[in-house]
Amino acid sequence: MSEPGEQERGPLREEPLEPSLEATVRDEDAAEEYEDEQPRNPFDNPWFLPLMLGAFALWCGYDGFVSDKFADRAGALWFNRVAFLLLGTLSVWLGRRASREGQAAAGSE
């Protein structure tokens, strides 16, 4: 007999260990649809990093070559000039890479 508060349970059903092929295909289609419905993150854009580095490079270039703000501090002046060259080069390299990635995506469609 069962005690009060316990519910009677039916016989245990055995479920197959491996899902059927139909269920797997349906799950893959659902996952693909789910990924397509997700909003894109702006950090996923291949142009985000090159544009941000380019903007920072321009800022460093302005402070290093145009502005007289750091004329009396040679260390800050040289930091801005070197940062302009390094960040500008990195921005151009990443920009070309993003451009190739965009062309490859457009070519595959």
Largest sheet: none
- Approximate helicity band: 55-70%
Record field, number of beta strands: 0
In whole angstroms, how far apart are the ends? 67 Å
Low-confidence stretches: none
Alpha-beta content class: mainly alpha
Global mean pLDDT: 80
- What Rg, in angstroms, do the CA atoms define? 29 Å
In N-to-C order, the SSE pattern is HHH
Give structural notes:
It is a single chain. The chain has a domain at 43-108. 65% of the residues lie in helices and 0% in strands. The chain is built from three helices and no strands. The protein has helices at residues 21-37, 48-66, 74-108. Helix 2 (48-66) packs antiparallel against helix 3 (74-108). It is elongated and about 85 Å long.
Q: Features of this protein?
A:
single chain; 109 residues
Please render the helix and strand layout as text:
Elements: H1 21-37, H2 48-66, H3 74-108
Please outline what is shown here.
The protein is mostly helical and 109 residues long. The chain has 3 helices and no strands.
